[in-house]
Amino acid sequence: MTKTIEISDETYEFLCRTAHELETQNNRHTDTPIFRIYETQKVERREGCGDHVERLDYDGAEEHYCQGCKDILESTDYDYDQLPEVFSDACDCRYSDGATWTFDKELLPASGGYDGVAFLTEKAAEEYRQDNDYHFNGSGVVYAESAFRNHELKPLIAAIKEIAATGAAASEGES
Ligand SMILES: [Zn+2]
Fold first, then answer.
1. pLDDT band per the 50, 70, 90 thresholds, residue 152
2. 77: CA distance to ligand 1 center in Å?
3. How remote is the CA of residue 137 from the centroid of ligand 1, in Å?
4. How far is the CA of 173 from the centre of ligand 1 (A)?
């Protein structure tokens, strides 16, 4: 049994554009891909296990800094940009409890209000990333994730393709 539906030109054009992307994009060997934006994030590690060390910068952390850094802060009206590199000979902060933290940089799904932002097509994700790159550490990267466990998405994608294909066939028949 078939149903005849009427949809606006805008909706039909949107479905055709989306169906075209879905059919022609590189699905990166993923079943039912969705596209998300990843960004570089700092992930805390145990001391000695991470690639990066930085001074902590919460309010009051400077009390734990080494004497050299405390002196610099006091003489520069707390200009943190004047502090030496944390691994330089002029700084002993890394030997002081509570002055530094250790982390690795990893590419992870964007957070801070962008978690859960996902796109059906790589093109849409890439356009969004470019328009909002200032929100993402390292301006972000688009990755495909498999949504094969999402039982709504697969039939929804099939429906978009079906409506677009049926519409195309119908308008061919008209001309
Ligand atoms: Zn220091």
1. very high
2. 16
3. 26
4. 77
Residue 73 alpha carbon to ligand 1 centre in Å: 10
For residues 48-70, one letter each, b for 16 or more C-beta atoms within 10 angstroms of the residue's C-beta and e for the rest, the string is eebeebebeeeeeebebbbebbe
Cα(106) to centroid of ligand 1, in Å? 26
Q: In this predicted model, which residue has the larger pLDDT, 110 or 170?
A: 110
Residues in the chain, how many?
A: 175
Q: How far is the CA of 41 from the CAs of 44, 84, 107, in angstroms?
A: 10, 24, 6
Residue 19 has a CB neighbour count (10 Å cut-off) of: 21
Q: Which residues pair with 109 in a beta bridge?
A: 38
- Mean pLDDT of the chain, nearest integer: 92
Distance 105 CA to ligand 1 centre (A): 22
Distance 55 CA to ligand 1 centre (A): 8
**In the structure, what pLDDT confidence band is assigned to residue 119 with cuts at 50, 70 and 90?**
very high
Q: Are 80 and 73 in contact (CB under 8 A)?
A: yes
Span 101-130, average pLDDT: 91
pLDDT on residue 99: 95
